[in-house]
């Protein structure tokens, strides 16, 4: 979330202007908006006009409306926020007191006025606008010469910094170049951690790496903290968790999520659940490929047969700009739900969500095996 | 104690008495360990180069080596001259004479004495041996064996091409000449005559050299190498031929200036090249009968044709010119004829303008090579490349010879004009090439020349963690004398201190504190050692599964591999079964193009050198390796103990009776590890392709000072590189000039495909060269792409590969995150027939065509164009899931 303007009087009444930037911000907005508040936002209004002959035409007009909120609806699957209320600022198309339902749109600014801004709400804005504060887990994936510092939230994995330091390799007779390079590399990670990690919010700092990098870095960091009397690091020593990953790239976070140690510490966050689901999918694809489908066409066919056990969709599909695509996927979600399927909407900002995105964005585990026609065709073709 | 007393106590005589000789011996005695190693290897290689029966004592070689500070080529050149010359008395005489003549000439003709103050020819004239002449030349120039700086100063003198062409093979000569250059530009004349003297003596040495080469080469595979070696020899012959023409002109001038008796001697020398050619011809005849390799035969025939053509040409020209040349010069008349005219022309000038003549002569000697005619090297190469089509070969070889006289003609008609043009050309060239301190080396030819020496191979050592790779190799290096006793003793003490006594040998290669403390190799260690016929660059790869990326980096630089397996109970199984690295490494090594492997069955002593255990391991591995695509002939096994050093460099004897009892064929013990390594076949080197070096390591500075330069180490995948050449970094496109090249920890002037080189490039910053960047020839840079098509062979991933599958793409030393964007089809690896278009997933063991998109740019080549840069590995979650070859690049 981006805070554009904050105009709060001494009597605690006033308004803030915000731009929601991601699905998580909509979630934050949902938590901010209460009945009786006033919301100004750009919206689309169907305007009826009647000609003299009596024929009626309806135009859809984009208008800026301010409504007094009477009802709020948050669509958890699509991550959409709908706000119903009465118009309080008259304009050309909409008369005073007419009802309108606003859809809060991403990347469109809105102004929220409250008769009283309490501390909780203000804190919420602060949190929403500061990605650092909303993160409860920080993760550093490392390999020699490369480190990625991420903040993981319920809905997002945000890369705060990517550190690349060229480290000369060990050479015959001299390791000083190498050792110097390594120290420079560790020092940069150390500083980045201090800069990006707010230990008041972050519960866990994950240090993941192949080999011994994480241990070496941890030792370096503690030594450095003691040397410089860095209270924050020393006090939060217990928050650091050392985990094995196969590489230092961001993709290794998925392995972090799989680690049982982390699962316990994160108390089943969304990302861990997603990681598990996608693992299950691949395992199924390996063991029983007829029970693991991906791609819209295959999955929708499975949905037609009512075969879907678990549907995995990324939220990106619902963020699709064109309405038909979005509807198509919403329909799929609805159909699956009708057949009692478990629907998981992956946050496309998580590593597992990204992975699902690459895998066409939709995948399904089936309750029973299905043979697809396309498979039959190609199989018969190859037999011929 | 006061200082005064210290001075008083000083024995002044003793201090002053330290003569030069003693200095030398002191130095020899005080050599550092490294120096001693270099000395030993130097002596060996020189001996190899000179042949066993050269009759030169080790001490002499050592002294020479030390004098040239391990410049082997210089030493060889010097030794050759000194010792061959003695057998050819008249040549030595000539050589001794020519500087003398020069000195005389100087006195007669050049009145300005400034260039003569401490002028080398004078010194040379006084001494009759070449040694002193050479050394005085060197000392005059104030150059200490640095041929590069010598050549730079040479360039400043303006006519580099002619001289550096000569300077190339005997680098001492180059140094000497360049030293001369710096002393005075007007000494051009002296130069060329000194050259001629040297050349003559060299030429005399040549047939002898060649005999050695030919006689030593009896085995079939080496035949080709021999023929290739003859090419440069032929080239240098031609080069000398032309040179001789010049010197003849000069000598004729001298004759005019009342120097006598030289001509006949020159003419006898002139006969030399042709007899030389005949020699080659004769020899190739005998070779024909024994040779079975067709390629070699063709090359020989080509050479023969070439030689006879050149000789024929010369004869014809001589006939046409109809000039009166002395009888002895008949064979090589053409050059002399043209020079003759030129010489007399010059003589005419002499009376008028003495200094101009000296200029003219100097310039003309410089001119011959630089200008419009292809160099003799090019000539032979051109002829070679057009082998098969006889007519074009004739055309190629005729052209330059025809061009030569005409050049001469214009030169004599309008020398001043010609000179002006020459200078303009020179400056234009300078501008175009920024820094180009020397004439381009024909690296291909140079490389061919070195083929009779030990041949380089890159050996990667792989295997499961704790199989004992580093210990085995550390012990091997120690046994081969690459590591001193003292160092090993030191390691033993220190390792003992931290309770890792058995790791002492591993410490030779595991040099970082972390590696030593943990007892695990983390990154590839590079070292070098030599066997009887091979010069190895050793790449000791880590075995730990987390460091497989490093192992890939090592293996992608290797020609051959050694797989080390732990024979002890349970350990072999843990490395081989499941997801042990014995399995993964073997697959990777094969996928990276290594065909020949020696399997060292290590730690066999822990099971009492049991033959059954050995046989069991061999049979299991053989089956597996065959499945990986190794041919059984290319996989050889040897039982060893790395810790105790059994069966490494010496065949097992009575000290280990358990092993000696069964490790034998009949009465003879089977070969030890080093013997197996020594018989690795040599791979083809793609030196003709454009230069590519994939950076493994990048660091600031380097061997030639640190200001504003970057050293890039890695294996030269293809092509050649030499000092002064411009190279470009992809991705990024920044370029720089090569300032230093190190191969196997020794400085070189050039390096070729297959060399594990450190190239120092001027004008770059380390940040501009990320690991994974490729140094290329600027004319044909490699392409950097993010999307490409590849054919993959899937190993044994835990889950199948789908569209959108995230992977790490490993190529050479880097890994880049990417995704399998699209599975195009699966196909049958044998027939190449498509099995299924657009499958939903690829399962283990399948082969498929896929499209991969990476996050950042990768430098790739199509596999069919360049194998080494067209191979990729796909990894995920710490396991290698597939190996692939690049089939298409998308911009």
TrEMBL record, chain A:
BP-aspect Gene Ontology terms: nonfunctional rRNA decay; nuclear-transcribed mRNA catabolic process, no-go decay; nuclear-transcribed mRNA catabolic process, non-stop decay; ribosome disassembly; RNA surveillance
A Pfam family per the record: Pelota_N
Give the record's family classification.
Belongs to the eukaryotic release factor 1 family. Pelota subfamily.
Q: Which GO terms describe its molecular function?
A: metal ion binding
Outline what the protein does: Component of the Dom34-Hbs1 complex, a complex that recognizes stalled ribosomes and triggers the No-Go Decay (NGD) pathway. In the Dom34-Hbs1 complex, dom34 recognizes ribosomes stalled at the 3' end of an mRNA and engages stalled ribosomes by destabilizing mRNA in the mRNA channel. Following ribosome-binding, the Dom34-Hbs1 complex promotes the disassembly of stalled ribosomes, followed by degradation of damaged mRNAs as part of the NGD pathway.
This protein's record includes keyword Glycosyltransferase = no
Q: Which PANTHER family match?
A: PELOTA, PROTEIN PELOTA HOMOLOG
Q: Which SUPFAM superfamilies match?
A: Dom34/Pelota N-terminal domain-like (SSF159065), L30e-like (SSF55315), Translational machinery components (SSF53137)
Name where it's found. Cytoplasm
One GO CC term, this protein: cytoplasm
Q: Keywords in UniProt for this one?
A: Cytoplasm, Metal-binding
Q: What is this protein called?
A: Protein DOM34 homolog
Q: Which residues form the eRF1/Pelota-like N-terminal domain?
A: 1-130
The protein's required cofactor(s) are namely: a divalent metal cation
TrEMBL record, chain B:
Keyword field: Coiled coil, Cytoplasm, GTP-binding, Hydrolase, Nucleotide-binding, Protein biosynthesis, Translation regulation
**Biological process (GO) annotations?**
cytoplasmic translational termination; regulation of translation
Q: Which residues form the Tr-type G domain?
A: 454-684
Q: Tell me, what is one Gene Ontology molecular-function annotation carried by this entry?
A: GTP binding
Instruction: State the source organism's domain of life.
Output: Eukaryota
Against InterPro entries, the record matches this protein to: EFTu-like_2, GTP-eEF1A_C, HBS1-like_N, P-loop_NTPase, T_Tr_GTP-bd_dom, TRAFAC_GTPase_members, Transl_B-barrel_sf, Transl_elong_EF1A/Init_IF2_C
Stored SUPFAM superfamilies: EF-Tu/eEF-1alpha/eIF2-gamma C-terminal domain (SSF50465), P-loop containing nucleoside triphosphate hydrolases (SSF52540), Translation proteins (SSF50447)
Q: Which CDD domains match?
A: EF1_alpha, HBS1_C_III
* Compositionally skewed regions (Low complexity) per UniProt: 122-144, 383-397
Q: Spell out the GO cellular component terms annotated for this protein, sorted alphabetically and separated by semicolons.
A: cytosol; Dom34-Hbs1 complex
One family from Pfam that matches here is GTP-eEF1A_C
Q: Quick one: where's region Disordered? A: 114-144, 383-411
Q: Which reaction does it catalyse?
A: GTP + H2O = GDP + phosphate + H(+)
Q: Where in the cell is it found?
A: Cytoplasm
Residue stretches in coiled coil: 293-320
Keyword Hydrolase annotated: yes
Q: Does the keyword Coiled coil apply?
A: yes
Query: Principal place where this protein is found?
Result: cytoplasm
User: Which family is this sequence assigned to?
Assistant: Belongs to the TRAFAC class translation factor GTPase superfamily. Classic translation factor GTPase family. EF-Tu/EF-1A subfamily.
What does the record note on quaternary structure? Answer: Component of the Dom34-Hbs1 complex, also named Pelota-HBS1L complex, composed of dom34 and hbs1.
Q: What is the protein name stated in its UniProt record?
A: Elongation factor 1 alpha-like protein
Which species? Answer: Coemansia brasiliensis
């Amino acid at each position: 979330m981006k805070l554009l303007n904050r105009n709060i009087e001494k009597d605690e009444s006033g308004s803030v202007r915000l731009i929601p930037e991601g699905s998580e911000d909509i979630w934050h907005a949902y938590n901010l908006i209460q009945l009786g508040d006033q919301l100004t936002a750009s919206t689309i209004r169907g305007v009826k006009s009647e000609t003299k002959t009596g024929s009626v035409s309806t135009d859809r007009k984009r208008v800026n409306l301010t409504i007094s909120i009477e009802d709020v609806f948050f669509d958890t699957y699509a991550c959409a926020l709908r706000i119903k209320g009465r118009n309080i600022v008259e304009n050309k198309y909409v008369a005073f007191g007419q009802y309108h339902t606003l859809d809060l749109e991403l990347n469109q600014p809105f102004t929220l006025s409250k008769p009283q801004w309490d501390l909780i709400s203000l804190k919420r804005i602060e949190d929403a606008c500061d990605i650092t504060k909303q993160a409860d887990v920080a993760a550093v994936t490392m390999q020699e010469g490369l480190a990625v510092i991420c903040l993981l939230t319920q809905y997002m994995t945000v890369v705060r910094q990517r550190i690349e330091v060229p480290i000369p390799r060990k050479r015959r007779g001299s390791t000083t170049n190498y050792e110097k390079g390594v120290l420079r590399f560790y020092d940069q990670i150390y500083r980045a951690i201090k800069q990006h990690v707010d230990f008041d919010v972050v519960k866990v700092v994950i240090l993941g790496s192949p080999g011994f990098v994480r241990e070496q870095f941890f030792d370096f960091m503690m030594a450095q903290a003691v040397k410089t009397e860095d209270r924050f690091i020393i006090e939060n020593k217990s928050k650091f968790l050392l985990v094995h990953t196969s590489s230092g790239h961001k993709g290794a976070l998925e392995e972090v999520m799989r680690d049982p140690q982390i699962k316990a510490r994160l108390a089943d966050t969304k990302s861990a659940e997603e990681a598990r689901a996608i693992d299950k999918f691949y395992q199924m694809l390996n063991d029983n490929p007829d029970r693991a489908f991906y791609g819209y066409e295959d999955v929708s066919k499975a949905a037609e047969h009512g075969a879907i056990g678990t549907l995995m969709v990324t939220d990106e599909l619902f963020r699709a700009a064109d309405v038909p695509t979005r509807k198509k996927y919403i329909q799929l979600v609805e159909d699956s739900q009708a057949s009692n399927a478990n629907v998981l909407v992956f946050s496309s900002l998580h590593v597992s969500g990204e992975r699902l995105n690459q895998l066409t964005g939709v995948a399904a585990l089936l309750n029973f095996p299905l043979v697809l026609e396309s498979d039959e065709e190609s199989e018969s073709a190859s037999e011929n | 104690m006061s200082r005064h007393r210290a001075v008083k106590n000083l024995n002044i005589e003793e201090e002053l008495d330290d003569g030069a000789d003693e200095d030398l011996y002191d130095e020899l005695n005080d050599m550092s360990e490294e120096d001693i190693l270099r000395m030993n290897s130097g002596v060996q290689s020189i001996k190899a180069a000179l042949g066993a029966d050269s009759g030169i004592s080790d001490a002499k070689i050592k002294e020479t080596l030390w004098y040239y500070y391990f410049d082997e080529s210089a030493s060889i050149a010097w030794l050759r001259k000194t010792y061959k010359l003695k057998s050819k008395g008249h040549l030595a005489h000539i050589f001794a004479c020519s500087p003398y003549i020069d000195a005389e000439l100087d006195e007669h003709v050049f009145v300005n004495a400034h260039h003569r103050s401490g002028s080398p020819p004078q010194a040379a004239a006084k001494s009759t041996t070449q040694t002193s002449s050479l050394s005085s030349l060197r000392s005059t120039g104030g150059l200490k064996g640095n041929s590069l700086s010598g050549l730079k100063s040479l360039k400043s003198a303006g006519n580099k091409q002619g001289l550096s062409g000569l300077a190339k093979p005997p680098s001492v000569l180059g140094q000497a000449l360049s030293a001369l250059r710096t002393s005075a530009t007007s000494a051009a004349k002296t130069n060329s005559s000194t050259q001629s003297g040297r050349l003559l003596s060299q030429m005399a040495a040549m047939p002898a050299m060649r005999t050695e080469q030919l006689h030593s080469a009896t085995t079939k595979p080496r035949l080709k190498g021999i023929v290739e070696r003859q090419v440069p020899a032929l080239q240098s012959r031609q080069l000398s031929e032309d040179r001789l023409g010049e010197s003849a002109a000069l000598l004729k001038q001298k004759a005019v200036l009342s120097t006598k008796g030289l001509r006949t001697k020159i003419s006898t020398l002139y006969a030399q090249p042709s007899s030389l050619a005949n020699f080659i011809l004769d020899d190739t005849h005998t070779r024909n009968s024994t040779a079975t390799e067709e390629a070699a035969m063709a090359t020989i025939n080509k050479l023969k044709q070439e030689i006879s053509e050149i000789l024929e040409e010369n004869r014809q020209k001589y006939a046409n010119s109809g000039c009166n040349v002395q009888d002895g010069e008949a064979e090589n008349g053409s050059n002399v004829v043209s020079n003759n005219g030129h010489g007399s022309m010059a003589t005419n000038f002499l009376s008028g303008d003495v200094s101009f003549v000296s200029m003219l002569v100097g310039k003309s000697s410089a001119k011959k090579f630089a200008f419009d005619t292809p160099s003799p090297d090019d000539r032979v190469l051109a002829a070679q490349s057009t082998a098969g089509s006889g007519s074009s070969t004739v055309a190629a070889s005729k052209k330059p010879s025809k061009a030569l006289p005409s050049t001469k003609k214009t030169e004599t008609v309008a020398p001043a004009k010609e000179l002006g043009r020459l200078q303009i050309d020179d400056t234009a060239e300078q501008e175009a090439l920024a820094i180009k301190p020397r004439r381009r080396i024909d690296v291909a030819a140079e490389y061919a020349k070195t083929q009779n020496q030990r041949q380089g191979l890159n050996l990667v050592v792989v295997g499961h963690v704790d199989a004992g790779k580093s210990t085995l190799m550390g012990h091997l290096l120690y046994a081969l004398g690459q590591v001193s006793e003292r160092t090993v003793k030191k390691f033993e003490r220190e390792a003992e201190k931290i309770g890792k006594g058995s790791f002492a040998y591993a410490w030779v290669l595991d040099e970082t504190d972390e590696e030593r403390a943990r007892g695990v190799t983390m990154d590839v260690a590079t070292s070098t050692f030599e066997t009887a016929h091979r010069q190895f660059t050793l790449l000791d790869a880590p075995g730990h599964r987390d460091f497989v990326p490093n192992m890939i980096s090592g293996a992608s630089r290797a020609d051959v591999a050694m797989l080390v397996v732990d024979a002890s109970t349970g350990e072999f199984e843990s490395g081989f079964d499941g997801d042990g690295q014995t399995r993964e490494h073997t697959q990777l090594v094969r996928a990276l193009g290594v065909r020949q492997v020696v399997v060292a069955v290590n730690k066999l002593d822990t099971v009492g050198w049991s033959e059954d255990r050995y046989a069991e391991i061999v049979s299991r591995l053989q089956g597996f390796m065959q499945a990986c695509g190794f041919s059984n002939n290319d996989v050889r096994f040897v039982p060893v103990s790395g810790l105790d050093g059994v069966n490494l460099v010496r065949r097992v004897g009575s000290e280990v009776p358990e092993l000696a009892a069964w490790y034998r064929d009949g009465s003879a013990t089977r070969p030890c590890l080093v013997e197996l390594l020594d018989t690795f076949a040599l791979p083809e080197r793609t030196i003709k392709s454009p230069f590519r070096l994939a950076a493994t390591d990048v660091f600031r500075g380097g061997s030639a000072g640190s200001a504003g330069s970057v050293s890039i180490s890695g294996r030269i995948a293809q092509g050649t590189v030499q000092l002064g050449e411009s190279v470009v970094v992809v991705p990024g496109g920044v370029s720089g000039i090569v300032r230093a090249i190190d191969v196997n920890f020794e400085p070189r002037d050039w390096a070729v495909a297959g060399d594990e080189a450190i190239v120092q490039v001027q004008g770059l910053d380390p940040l501009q060269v990320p690991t994974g960047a490729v140094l290329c020839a600027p004319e044909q840079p490699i392409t950097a792409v993010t999307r490409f098509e590849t054919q993959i062979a899937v190993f044994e991933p835990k889950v199948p590969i789908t569209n959108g599958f995230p992977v790490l793409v490993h190529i050479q030393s880097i890994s880049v995150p990417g995704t399998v964007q699209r599975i195009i089809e699966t196909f049958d690896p044998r027939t190449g027939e498509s099995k299924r278009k657009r499958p939903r997933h690829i399962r283990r063991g399948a082969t498929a065509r896929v499209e991969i998109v990476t996050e950042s740019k990768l430098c790739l080549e199509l596999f069919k164009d360049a194998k080494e840069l067209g191979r990729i590995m796909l990894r995920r979650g710490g396991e290698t899931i597939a190996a692939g070859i690049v089939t298409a690049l998308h911009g």
